[in-house]
Amino acid sequence: MTPHNNARPGDYAEAVLLPGDPLRAKWIAETFFEDAKCVNTVRNCLGFTGTFKGKPVSVQATGMGQPSTAIYVHELLNVYDVKTLVRVGTCGGLNTRVKVRDVVIAQTASTDSTIVKDAFGPYNFAPAADFGLLRAAADAAEAKGLTAHVGGILSSDIFYHPSGAEAYARLMAHGVLGVEMEAASLYTLAARHGARALTVCTMTDCLITGEEIDADARQTSLVDMVEIGLAAALGV
Ligand code: HPA
Prior knowledge:
32% of the residues lie in helices and 27% in strands. It has helices at 22-32, 66-78, 114-117, 131-143, 169-173, 183-192, 215-234, and strands at 15-18, 34-40, 47-52, 55-60, 84-93, 103-111, 148-155, 178-180, 196-206. The two termini are 30 Å apart. The structure holds hypoxanthine (HPA).
């Protein structure tokens, strides 16, 4: 048990999906898992364990942003011996090729977060996804006939940036596909502790055109994203 998690050792499966929203974690457990049981209730940042296609799997909410994500990920890796972490979330679009509802599979995650920025002395660490998970997710998306983009994203610490998309302009000019707030810390901690990590996002709001996902499409897209995340995490 930790200050943030009242699960006991062994309560989490080796593979864990990581949505930001606790109610989305509950929805994933109720919709996709068999024999789901709640393993963490601290701060209502819910975690569940069950099976999917006969394989043990967990889901743990991370809350929003890299500091919160880093707490849950650090503890899952160090206290609960988790080996595979797949974030399932949403991102803002930074590239005209990426349309609302498209899936973005984050090969790398650039960031302004101090979690990565100041941790490597003179170097800038490059937070990157596990290639096996990346390939499995891309294959799963293709098998579903979905438009999936594999490439770099930005994990920003600032949602309401005072200079808006201008702040991202240089990264956009370098082909960055979208912006969210968690993947870089996830990839960095997974690398530090020898685990596998991936981020799969649905693009919900384009920062270039202002287009946003509607409520119905949001739900369908969430299902697709979770199915891709489960296929990658469990190899099913
Ligand atoms: N910025 C950061 N994170 C996000 C966004 C965004 O525009 N959309 C969805 N997650």
